[in-house]
Amino acid sequence: MHALRYLTLVWPGLPWLWLRGSLSGLFLAMAFAVSVDMAILATFVWPGLVELPFTLGLWTAVAVLWLISTVSAAAAFPPAIAAPRRDEADALFAQARDAYLARDWVQTEARLQDLLTIAPTDGEAQLLHASLLRRTGRTVDAKKALEKLARSDSGAPWRHEIAAELDRLADPSERHAGEEPAVLPLRDESGGQNPRSAAA
Hints:
Serine Threonine Protein Phosphatase 5, Tetratricopeptide repeat; single chain
């Protein structure tokens, strides 16, 4: 399976688009597709309408774009997202949650950054991070983080909480003065469905 990841190098932009969902990877993949389409049209569909030097220039541009993007993608190939040990991820999340409940925003962000480094697809940690951004006044970043989480598979179990956070961002007057973060129980060790704690 690991070797199949390298097949994405065949199409420029695909490694970052497929493996990381990168917007710049999408634009590069689309630009390459348009270049190839134009070259094919000029060569096989309308050969009489386009001068030979222009057609050669198109194919040269396609080849140069493919070569540069493939070499740069191979040099900075996105590493595989490692599955962290559950104990390590849960320990970091518990530390972040405790710091969040203690309103220690600096410690909360530090623990969440550690967790998201080893488990970037952890939806629960992303949700807590977005909540932290909202509470510390970084509303633009919070909205971006929530919208990104809502579009991802890891955000599916947290749709209700994401919607609630977006509502709070949209209408700050709904926030009560004595609002306390809500805490859900920790996931049990038996592999049950109980999620780790999350804060609203």
